[in-house]
Prior knowledge:
Strand content: under 5%
Helix content: over 70%
Amino acid sequence: MTSQPKENLSLWQLFVLILNFELGSAIIVGLGNEAKQDAWVAILIATIYGILLVWGYTFLLEKGSGKNLFEIMEMAIGKIFSSVITICYVIYFFYITSRVLRDFGELMTSAILPKTPLEVISLTFMLLITYMIYLGLENLGRLTELFTPYILLFIGITCFLLIVGGEFTFKNLQIPFQDGAAPIVKAIFPTLMGFPFGEMVVFTVVIAYTSKQKYAGKVGMIAVGISGFILTIATLLQIGSLGVDQRVRSNFPLLSAIRNVSIATFIERLEAIVVFLLMLGIIVKVGLFFFTGLKGIEHVFRIPYRPLVFPMGMLVAVFSIAISENFAEHIEEGVKFVPLYLHLPFQIGFPALTLILLLWKQRKGGTNAHF
């Protein structure tokens, strides 16, 4: 057998992966709509939660001797029970992969390629990602560190153009907390807790392939903090440019805002910038969710994941198309069902249970025992 490439990420690659993963589709869609004009406040508070969550995940990995989540669950609850939960994680990761892929397809068909079938976009994009994942996690890290400076530059340009050439007005921002704290709490729990910050659960698998793991927690918390700040600024610009009502109604508020930019009737129609901002984040997000799902299969069935990359990738692409009849149904499912019934147990419930049982077994001196 030919040797498989070893997965190995530097701390800088981990940083840019987390940064782009958190921005992903979150920078395009309307976050915190339940909080209306206070959406940016909700995102700031949720960022603090995201930082604490990263600390909790890295604490779990530290107690698990640097192993990934699937291996730690086996240490904590035994092979049989952990295999069942791992398979559930595989389904969860692949499901979220298909949802993010659908987000990208819907944006492309609405903004750039309106006459191109959604099926073509999803299958083509997933083919690209399957090839990258087949080459290995390190290749995804290298691609991300190469393009991240350009992404940050384009984010800066987008912010500048929205302020200078758009319809941005400070009157639209209004005074925070006019409706009290209830709308902010509603926006944070469970929606913002699960998306995008709770999705950091994938890094309970990815961090295990990082060099100098003892610094991974600090790197992750800094990356989440920066991404949260960028999302807050993007939300402020969306509210300032569109107003609260139009932002809530828009499927892709940043895209709607950038369409209003017109400088000297020369700099116009800048949707391509938004799509470029989204492209790398979607590649990273889809790639990492897909990779962690494959690693779950590898762990349970003790087979290399690479032979499964193409067939599973095509299944995910097909499922992303069949997942809902239209974009409205897709969004409704993502807002009402996914945060409460999927994100909470898989992002908080199972990791917390694993940590409690692992600490109990270590205290009893039986980390190798099985239930």
